[in-house]
Amino acid sequence: MPIVKYPRATKPLWHEWDRKAQKRGLRHTVYAVNGDQYTGEWLDNLKHGKGTQVWKSTGAIYSGDWKFGKRDGYGSYSVPDPVTKEYKKVYTGWWKDDKKCGYGMMYHPSGERYEGEWSHGLRSGWGRMYHRDGSIYEGQWLLDQPHGQGMLRMANEDRYEGGWKDGKKHGPGKFFYLDKGQLFEGIWAADIPKCGIMIDFGRDEAPAPTLYPIPKV
Questions:
Q1: CB count in 10 Å sphere of residue 86
Q2: Considering the domain boundaries, does residue 163 fall inside one?
Q3: 40 lies in which domain range?
Q4: Which of 71, 119, 187, 207 sits at 20 to 30 Å (Cα–Cα) from 48?
C-alpha cells in the first residue's frame, strides 16, 4: 500500500517574530521611538515590577516600582542639574496610577521641601513644608494647600496655631508673638484676624517686650 506523505504545516515566520517580540520578565534596556529608554521587568508588554525609565527630552529618571505600565509602589524621580548635569532628587516616596500617592518627600530647586502625605499627585493629609524664608508649616493639607488644623512657625520663632482653609488662616486660632511676649487669640478669615483678645504671654522672658504690660480686664 503506498504511503502518502503530507507536507508538515508550518506557521508564518511573523508568528515566531511576534512571539520573540513579546516583552515579559526581566529585559535589558528597551528603547522607544522617541528615544526614551527603560530597563527592568515587563508583563504582557507593559512595564511591571522593578525598573528604571529615562526620558530623553528632559533627562529625568525614575527608578522604582511599576504596575501595568505606570509608576505604582515605591520609587524616586530625579532630574539633572542644568549646570553641573548631576542628578538631583525631586521626589522620593510612594506612587499610585503614575501619581504621587501615600507618604513621600518633595525637593524644590529653591531649597524648599515637603515631607508628608499625597493623594492623586497633590499634597493631601498630614505634612510638613519647609519654606525658603525659614518658616515651617506642619499640619493638614487638602488639594496642595494647608487646610484643616496646622501650625506655622516663622523664622523669628513667632507662630500661629489654628485653623486653615485654602492655604490661609481661617477659623479659631492663636498667634504667639514670642519676641514681644504677647498672644493674640481669636477668629481669622482669609488670613485676616476678625476679632479676638491680646494678652501678655511669657513677657518676662521675651527678648523685646512692650514698654508696658497689657492691663487685665
A1: 8
A2: yes
A3: 18-101
A4: 119
Task: Give CA–CA dist 210/180, Å, rounded.
Answer: 6
Q: Provide the domain count of the chain.
A: 2
CB burial of 4-37 (b: ≥16 within 10 Å; e: otherwise) equals eeeeeeeeeeeeeeeeeeebeeeeeeeeeeeeee
What was the pLDDT predicted at 202?
74
Asked whether residue 154 falls in the same domain as residue 177, the answer is yes
Cβ-count burial 138-171 (b if 16+ within 10 Å, e if not):
bbbbbeeebbeebbbbbeeebbbbbbbbebebbe
Let me know whether 117 and 207 are in one domain: yes
Determine the pLDDT at residue 205: 73
Q: Phi/psi of residue 13, each to 5°?
A: -60, -30
Q: Is the pTM of this model over 0.70?
A: yes
The widest CA-to-CA distance across the chain, in whole angstroms, is: 127
* Chain segment 114-123, per-residue pLDDT in tens: 999 999 999 9
Does 53 map to a domain?
yes
Identify whether the C-beta of residue 61 lies closer than 8 Å to the C-beta of residue 54.
yes
Model confidence band, residue 10 (pLDDT cutoffs 50, 70, 90): low
The three cell numbers of residue 20 are: 520573540
